[in-house]
Amino acid sequence: MITSSYPWWWLALPVLLLPIWWHRQKRQRLDATPLATARFLPAAAPEQLRVWQWRDRLLLLVRCLLLISLIAWLAATVLPWRGDTVLVDAGADQAWATRQIADAGMSDARRIDLPPDALAWLRKNERDWRADARLLIVAREGQIGMTARAPQFGHAVELRVQAASVAPAAPAVQHQVVLSATSEREPAWRSLFAAFGQAGDGAQRYALATAPVAATELIVCDTPGLAPPPGWRAPHWWLRAGSDKDWPELAKATTITINGITLRYADSPRGRLWTSTAFPPRDAQTARALYQTWRLLAAAPAPAYPAPSHKFSTAAAAAVADASPAHWIAWLLLALFLLERSLTHARRA
Length: 349
Prior knowledge:
The protein is of the alpha/beta class.
């Protein structure tokens, strides 16, 4: 199996058209028969015609295979060209970064911007560095995520992390909610979102409105027999139980149960529709379960564990397994070249 270390070499495949074009044309000189009256005609140079036909098909096949083998060899062959390199986080303090680079003895090393997911990027592109190259990563705390198992590299890689300063407490996140409910059930909904705002140390706030705006995240529609305006849109809708007649999309709803709360949901052009018999909760225990369920459904992925300053271990086995050139392609290339030269010489003989 051939693994392309530099797959962009395969873009050179159209070069195969050159030998095909060359072998399709043949120059044929017109036969000239001298006539006695030719001396009375103006002199003219001999003419040649291009006759399109297949010529030397075996030689053409060998030349095409030779070009394909050359492209495959270039795509599979790794040519390390990078030396000592420093990956610098653009947001890090420049004075601190300069001191760290000088302390590591890499002031003359080439510097490149820190790519996203730097460790994975470095592991993927490590073949580009020469065997004796060293790499240094200088970044702010939290910019490099550490995996469960520290990666191993085939080069000397060192990570230096700038300690983060104490950040001020983040402001409370405000969620825009539209409430459309009957007068009998509206107080229950308002009490629910007031309790939501008090939960979680008050880090989440819920602002209730009567009409959606661009930032609206949720629309509560608890008005039986009264459809909301057609222009209302939101990522999520909470509908009272028994709304299947007003919302045909709920006919194919999916049912899930979390924390004892049974929810049905379906997607629609207006947003994702949610309905449950727990809307609105009738007691504090149900309200708490609904809050935990909704936070679980809306939870963002946990951030990666921030990597501390670290010198990664060097292992020869950590080199990319497919980074060495395919030697058999080189031998095939040599054999095809010798065969092509032999056929060309035999044709001229």
